[in-house]
């Protein structure tokens, strides 16, 4: 039987490259297309969920807003209607859980308003332990209706409550539809104060960090819970350990309730979230009409949550402590989830680092001994040196060119990646392809009297494969060190690439060894070579004469004439010996191509797709432009690197065509405006009101609210601040606002949001109003109604303690900032005893305290303690403030709205400056909140 493969020629290699890359890239990008929901939704109802979504995300509803109460009431009605049908379903409207906890920089007191649901499992052994928690938050930020963050998560939980009520599992399911996630994960902390938090040992958290598309498995704690996300449970799994690595290393500057459940309750769990379309995140565009995928996006989350949730509730393997170990995981074309323990990758890498080179060196030594018998002489030294060095030259030159392109991009039009990330990736990849492959394909000319023609491309292919393996070995060593020291699992690409190169090198060496039976008995030079000129056959070598008019045009046709010989009469006839030899030929390049190209290109394409979608619009958050472009450049280089051994036979026309597109797109990217309504530039807004007369240091009064009602502070100053990228904020955005005209605007780098600048000026179109229950104005109040934002009283109770009472108007949120001395202890009257474990106050203390109540107009009474470092009885000073997060246009039409709070109505806060911003901002700009309060009223204190 004849065994033949395509020859190592320009046509074969170019075709393989084109077909492979077209198919791979098509499949990778096709997986972003969301399918329609099936007609048989197997117990879920997309129509019902989408209807719930419209009610929940009708308007912004942050924790500190009246709209939030309306959303909570709607959710309660929905879960009560389900519980009424099933005796094993229990609902708690949790208005009791409260507590205190601290981070490294601030402390919190919070009163929760979570909606909790418990669906009893069929096995009584799991009623009080080993249950599963399902979590999503129903609050939004003040500047967004919250369709993906986190309305879709909430309506998915409503569907799961109904689904698991009908389809009971062994384990108990706990649902925490929590309130206050946007304000530093407070709702999850409040859940840990409730007795039901002791039931689950694993969780599934649903989140949104963008504007739709496919949800991705952001993070997972261990191999055990990741089993719930295998493709048999989730039909279209989308996951990658790289996102978990990014959270672990602090590359992603945000948090989810996942952190509270893992750190605070030691649960194992999954974090499922949207991540595409970051420019719309926390803006008015996080609304149903602007969601990427809309119903299809919602169905993707529902389907994944049901599959993973059912597995967590039913499969004991997902609760196996032996598998509570870090894992490596990634999906392939959203068809299959690849999953294995990180420790397995670590062990394999160590073994492969040691045995791989040893085995390969042994094979190469045997190959060298055998090939020594075939060599008549060596190539000229200068050509040999070039062939062994050009791989490294190509890498250095390519990386240098990429660095230059990154520099040009960052300086010329850096934000084009914001709206056109894949054009940027295409250009960077194309330039890498041309630079890298053309340098490797170039060979120095032969000497004029070189009478031996080596199989240049074939020999150089083997050289490049060996050098690529050497490079991969170095990278594998570094990745193994990273795994051992930092548990970074996202470097799996290096392992697969190195293994493929080892196999490619071994195949070539084994072929040489097995072909020894065709060699003469004694090691003597062989006088002939095969027609193809490929040493894969190790056929006879051919000596060439000086070119003449009768020299064949095609190399390899002299003497043997390409499979023919000349008889005595000069006519040509088939050389049967050559024919028989050719029939045995196996050209190993195709198998080497399969080993070295598809796997790393597939993995790199998946990583690039995820990386671009997740990071291209983080420039508006202050992320480094160079980092984003360097990441895209690295992905482009990784897509090209596996082609190195085959560069000699990639037709140059491919690179020439790519260069034409690069020039066209490059010129376009330098002149086009980078933002549009589909990819708006995000800026951040806040107003601050400085008061005088809101703070007293008199002894505490039992009639604090009544006393304060009679004392109206004076507004001393109002400042408006915007935070954004320096290239556009000061020159293109602020001038569009009428109230900023003629103002003295100060712009300085932001310390709160690194990478952005903050521009501030005094005044505005009108002063903000805190809303309902405002006291009438008098002559000392220059702005009329609404000046009474808050009142506070301070009493020093010892040399290092004080009691502070704050009464805010129409707000649930106040703050204390300590400038002189950090506090080492605080207790809020009415709170649970002590600090929540493990969130205690650490050295050197806290400089900020955030207070949250579940009711409006509540008095916060706080006892604080600080250190007397020098024994001089030094006091404490700082600022006291209250926050407002709602504005009139976002509250218009809200049920129970009215001017008389006594009769059940309310009057929401008014922020005229924000209304002006929404009316006058360019269509390519979107506004988001800077911090919890859109307006913060404050005054200095000193005790």
TrEMBL record:
Residues 391-515, 541-649 form the Vacuolar membrane protease transmembrane domain. Its EC number is 3.4.-.-. Residues 549-558 have a biased composition (Polar residues). It is found in: Vacuole membrane. Keywords: Glycoprotein, Hydrolase, Membrane, Metal-binding, Metalloprotease, Protease, Transmembrane, Transmembrane helix, Vacuole, Zinc. The keyword Protease applies. SUPFAM superfamilies: Zn-dependent exopeptidases. Residues 114-294 form the Peptidase M28 domain. Residues 681-936 form the Vacuolar membrane protease C-terminal domain. May be involved in vacuolar sorting and osmoregulation. Belongs to the peptidase M28 family. This is Peptide hydrolase. It comes from Leucocoprinus birnbaumii.
């Amino acid at each position: 039987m004849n065994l033949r493969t395509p020859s190592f020629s320009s046509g074969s290699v170019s075709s393989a490259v084109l077909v492979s890359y077209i198919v791979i890239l098509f499949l990778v990008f096709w997986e972003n297309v969301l399918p329609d929901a099936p007609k048989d939704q197997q117990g879920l109802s997309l129509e019902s969920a989408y209807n719930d979504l419209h009610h929940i995300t009708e308007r912004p509803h942050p924790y500190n807003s009246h709209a939030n109460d309306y959303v909570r009431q709607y959710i309660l009605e929905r879960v009560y209607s389900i519980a009424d049908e099933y005796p094993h379903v229990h609902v708690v409207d949790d208005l009791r859980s409260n507590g205190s906890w601290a981070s490294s920089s601030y402390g919190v007191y919070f009163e929760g308003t979570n909606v909790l649901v418990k669906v009893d499992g069929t096995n009584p052994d799991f009623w009080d332990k080993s249950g599963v928690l399902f979590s999503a938050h129903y609050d939004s930020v003040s500047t967004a209706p919250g369709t993906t963050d986190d309305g879709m998560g909430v309506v998915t939980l409503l569907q799961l409550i109904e689904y698991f009520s009908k389809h009971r599992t062994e384990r108990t399911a706990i649902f925490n539809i929590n309130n206050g996630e946007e304000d530093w994960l407070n709702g999850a902390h409040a859940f840990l104060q409730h007795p039901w938090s002791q039931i689950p040992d694993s969780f599934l958290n649903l989140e949104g960090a963008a504007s739709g598309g496919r949800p991705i498995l952001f993070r997972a704690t261990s191999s055990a819970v990741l089993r719930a996300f295998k493709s048999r449970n989730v039909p279209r799994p989308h996951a990658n350990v790289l996102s978990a690595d990014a959270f672990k290393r602090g590359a992603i500057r945000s948090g989810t309730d996942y952190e509270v459940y893992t750190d605070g309750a030691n649960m194992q769990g999954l974090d499922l979230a949207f991540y595409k379309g970051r420019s719309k995140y926390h803006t008015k565009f996080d609304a149903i009409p602007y969601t990427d995928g809309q119903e299809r996006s919602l169905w993707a989350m529902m389907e994944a949550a049901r599959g993973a949730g059912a597995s967590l509730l039913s499969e004991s393997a997902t609760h196996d402590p032996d598998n509570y170990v870090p894992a490596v995981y990634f999906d392939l074309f959203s068809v299959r989830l690849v999953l294995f323990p990180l420790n397995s990758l670590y062990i394999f890498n160590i073994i492969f680092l040691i045995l791989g080179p040893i085995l390969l060196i042994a094979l190469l030594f045997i190959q060298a001994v055998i090939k020594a018998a075939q060599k008549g002489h060596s190539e000229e030294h200068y050509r040999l040196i070039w062939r062994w060095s050009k791989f490294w030259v190509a890498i250095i030159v390519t990386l240098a060119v990429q660095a230059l392109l990154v520099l040009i991009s960052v300086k010329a039009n850096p934000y084009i990646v914001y709206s056109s990330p894949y054009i940027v990736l295409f250009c960077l990849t194309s330039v890498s392809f041309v630079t890298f492959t053309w340098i490797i394909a170039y060979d120095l000319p032969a000497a004029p009297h070189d009478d031996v023609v080596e199989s240049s491309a074939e020999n150089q292919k083997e050289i490049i494969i060996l050098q690529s393996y050497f490079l991969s070995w170095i990278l594998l060593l570094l990745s193994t060190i990273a795994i051992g020291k930092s548990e970074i699992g996202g470097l799996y690409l290096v392992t697969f690439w190195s293994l493929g190169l080892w196999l490619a090198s071994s195949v070539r060496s084994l072929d040489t060894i097995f072909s020894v039976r065709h060699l003469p008995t004694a090691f003597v030079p062989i006088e002939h070579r095969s027609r193809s000129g490929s040493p894969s056959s190790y056929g006879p070598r051919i000596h060439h004469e000086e070119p003449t008019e009768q020299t064949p045009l095609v190399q390899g046709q002299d003497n043997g004439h390409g499979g023919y010989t000349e008889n005595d009469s000069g006519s040509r006839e088939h050389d049967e010996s050559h024919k028989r030899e050719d029939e045995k030929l196996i050209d190993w390049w195709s198998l080497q191509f399969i080993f070295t190209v598809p796997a790393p290109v597939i993995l790199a394409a998946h990583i690039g797709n995820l990386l671009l979608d997740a990071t291209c619009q983080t420039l508006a958050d202050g992320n480094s432009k160079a980092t984003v472009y360097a990441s895209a450049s690295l992905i482009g280089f990784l897509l090209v690197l596996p082609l190195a051994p085959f560069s000699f036979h990639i037709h140059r026309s491919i690179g020439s065509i790519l260069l034409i597109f690069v020039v066209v797109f490059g010129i376009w990217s330098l002149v086009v405006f980078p933002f549009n309504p589909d990819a708006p530039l995000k800026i951040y807004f806040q107003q601050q009101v400085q008061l005088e007369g809101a703070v007293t240091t008199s002894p505490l009064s039992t009639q604090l609210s009544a006393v304060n009602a009679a004392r109206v502070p004076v507004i001393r100053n109002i400042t408006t601040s915007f935070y954004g990228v320096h290239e556009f904020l000061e020159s293109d955005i602020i001038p569009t606002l009428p109230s900023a005209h003629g103002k003295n605007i100060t712009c300085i780098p932001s310390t709160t949001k690194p990478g952005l600048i903050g521009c501030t000026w005094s005044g505005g179109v009108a002063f903000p109003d805190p809303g309902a229950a405002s006291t009438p104005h008098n002559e000392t109040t220059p702005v009329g109604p609404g000046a009474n934002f808050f009142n506070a009283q301070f009493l020093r109770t010892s040399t290092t303690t004080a009691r502070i009472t704050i009464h805010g108007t129409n707000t649930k949120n106040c703050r204390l900032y300590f400038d002189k001395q950090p506090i080492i202890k605080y207790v809020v009257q009415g709170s649970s005893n002590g600090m929540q474990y493990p969130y205690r106050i650490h050295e050197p203390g806290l400089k900020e305290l955030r207070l949250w109540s579940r009711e409006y107009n509540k008095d916060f009474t706080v006892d604080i303690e600080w250190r007397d470092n020098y024994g001089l009885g030094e006091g404490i000073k700082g600022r006291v403030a209250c926050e407002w997060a709602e504005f009139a246009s976002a509250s218009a039409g809200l049920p129970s709205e009215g001017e008389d709070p006594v009769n059940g109505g309310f009057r929401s806060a008014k922020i005229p400056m924000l209304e002006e911003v929404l009316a006058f901002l360019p269509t390519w700009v979107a506004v988001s909140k800077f911090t919890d309060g859109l307006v913060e009223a404050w005054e200095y204190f000193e005790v």
